[in-house]
C-alpha cells in the first residue's frame, strides 16, 4: 500500500475561520449630525492582530467611524464592542485604545524621551519601569540616539516615529491611526509604510488606520474597508479589492481601470460573452455572472493587464482584441502609460513596464496598435 504524503494544513486567516471571535465588532452603527448622515448602518468585524484600513475620500465617514471607536463621538444608533465589551458610555480614557493623530501633537518643550514617557507618568507608573519601557520603545522605532532631542530638531519621519512610540508605550490593545503618514513626503511615506508594518507585526497590536491613499492602504493592510458616503462599499484583502471589485465605484477608486459597457449575449457556468460597441470587440471573461441574457453590464480591465503590439495577435478569434491610435505617452521611469484612442472614440489607458530604454521602445505617438488581454483580466460588474 502506497504511503500518502502528509499535507501541511492550510492556515485560515482569522476572518475566514468561523471559530475566531472578532476583537472589534461594529454592529449597525449610524452617526448623524443633524440631518447629515456621516456613517450609515455600518457593520464590521476586525480581528486581533490585524492591520485594518478604513479607506475613502473626503466625507466618506471613515474618520467619524474612527472617532466613535476612540470614544470621541457617540453612535446615534448601533453598538461597538472591543474585546467583547460594549463601549457604550465608556469614556476615551477608559478604553483599551490609543490614538495617533496626523498632526502628531508632540510637546515642543519636551525631549523625545519625555514625550514618549508622558502618558506613563500621568498613569503613575514607577520611574524605573518608565525608563525601561521608554528605552525599549525608542529602540524599536530606531530613535534611541535621539532621546535627548526636541521635536524641532527631528525630521518629519522621526517625529512620526516619536508619536508612534508615545502611542504604543502604554501597550494599548488597539491603536487607531488617523492619516498617520499624511505629513510626510512621498519617498519617506513609502519607507515608513514598511516600518509601520514591521513594528505592528513585532508587537502584535491591532492597528486600525484611516487613509485616503489607496497605495498606503494596499501596502500596509491585512484587509481594507472601502467607504463611500457613510457606507462600506466593499471589505476584503488588498488582492480581493483590486482584482475582484464588486462595484464600479470600488474598481475606479482603487488604482486605474478601463471600463467597457456591453450586453450579455452568452452566460455559461465557466464564462460570459459580452458584445461591446464601446470596446469595439466582443469581451470574453472566464467567470459566470448571475444576470439574464441581454442585460447591460460593465467590464473592468486594469491597464497593466492590456498588451500593446503593432502586429495582430496570432491565433486570435477577435475576442478581447481591439485597435486604436496612440495619442499620449507618459514616461515614468519604471513604466510608461499609453493613452490609446479606439475607433469607437473611447480612450483606453495601458501601463507597460519599460524593459528597454525609452529611445528603443517600438511603439510611439500616432502608431496604430492592437490591444489584447486574457480572459481572466476582465471583471464583470453589475453595480
From TrEMBL:
Residues of the ABC transporter domain: 24-254
Keywords linked to the UniProt accession: ATP-binding, Cell inner membrane, Cell membrane, Membrane, Nucleotide-binding, Translocase, Transport
EC number: 7.6.2.11
Primary enzyme class: translocase
Keyword flag Membrane: yes
UniProt keyword tRNA-binding present: no
Record's catalysed reaction(s): ATP + H2O + polyamine-[polyamine-binding protein]Side 1 = ADP + phosphate + polyamineSide 2 + [polyamine-binding protein]Side 1
Protein name: Spermidine/putrescine import ATP-binding protein PotA
Organism: Azospirillum rugosum
Highest classification ranks of the organism: Bacteria, Pseudomonadati, Pseudomonadota, Alphaproteobacteria, Rhodospirillales
Gene that this polypeptide is encoded by: potA
Amino acid at each position: 500500500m502506497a504511503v500518502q504524503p502528509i499535507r501541511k494544513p492550510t492556515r485560515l486567516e482569522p476572518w475566514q475561520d468561523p471559530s475566531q471571535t472578532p476583537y472589534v465588532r461594529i454592529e449597525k452603527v449610524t452617526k448623524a449630525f443633524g440631518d447629515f448622515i456621516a456613517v450609515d448602518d455600518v457593520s464590521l468585524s476586525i480581528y486581533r492582530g490585524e492591520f485594518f484600513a478604513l479607506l475613502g475620500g473626503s466625507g466618506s465617514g471613515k474618520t467619524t467611524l474612527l472617532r466613535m471607536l476612540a470614544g470621541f463621538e457617540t453612535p446615534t444608533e448601533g453598538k461597538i464592542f472591543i474585546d467583547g465589551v460594549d463601549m457604550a458610555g465608556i469614556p476615551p480614557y477608559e478604553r483599551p485604545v490609543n490614538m495617533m493623530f496626523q498632526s502628531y501633537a508632540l510637546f515642543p518643550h519636551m525631549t523625545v524621551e519625555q514625550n514618549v514617557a508622558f502618558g506613563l507618568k500621568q498613569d503613575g507608573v514607577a520611574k524605573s519601569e518608565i525608563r525601561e519601557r521608554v528605552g525599549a520603545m525608542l529602540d524599536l522605532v530606531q530613535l534611541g540616539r535621539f532621546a535627548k532631542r526636541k521635536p524641532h530638531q527631528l525630521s518629519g519621519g522621526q517625529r512620526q516615529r516619536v508619536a508612534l512610540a508615545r502611542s504604543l508605550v502604554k501597550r494599548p490593545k488597539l491603536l487607531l491611526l488617523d492619516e498617520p503618514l499624511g505629513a510626510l513626503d512621498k519617498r519617506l511615506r513609502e519607507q515608513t509604510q514598511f516600518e509601520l508594518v514591521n513594528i505592528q507585526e513585532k508587537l502584535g497590536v491591532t492597528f486600525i488606520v484611516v487613509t485616503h491613499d489607496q497605495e498606503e492602504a494596499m501596502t500596509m493592510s491585512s484587509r481594507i474597508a472601502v467607504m463611500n458616503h457613510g457606507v462600506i462599499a466593499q471589505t476584503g484583502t488588498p488582492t480581493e479589492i483590486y482584482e475582484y471589485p464588486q462595484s464600479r465605484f470600488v474598481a475606479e477608486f482603487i488604482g486605474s481601470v478601463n471600463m467597457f459597457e456591453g450586453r450579455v449575449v452568452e452566460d455559461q457556468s465557466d464564462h460570459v460573452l459580452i458584445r461591446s460597441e464601446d470596446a469595439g470587440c466582443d469581451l470574453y471573461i472566464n467567470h459566470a455572472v448571475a444576470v439574464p441574457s441581454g442585460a447591460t453590464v460593465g467590464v473592468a480591465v486594469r491597464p497593466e493587464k492590456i498588451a500593446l503590439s503593432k502586429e495582430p495577435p496570432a491565433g486570435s478569434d477577435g475576442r478581447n482584441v481591439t485597435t486604436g491610435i496612440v495619442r499620449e505617452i507618459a514616461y515614468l521611469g519604471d513604466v510608461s502609460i499609453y493613452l490609446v484612442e479606439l475607433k469607437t472614440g473611447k480612450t483606453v489607458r495601458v501601463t507597460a513596464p519599460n524593459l528597454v530604454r525609452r529611445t528603443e521602445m517600438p511603439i510611439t505617438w500616432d502608431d496604430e496598435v492592437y490591444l489584447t488581454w486574457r480572459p481572466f483580466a476582465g471583471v464583470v460588474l453589475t453595480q
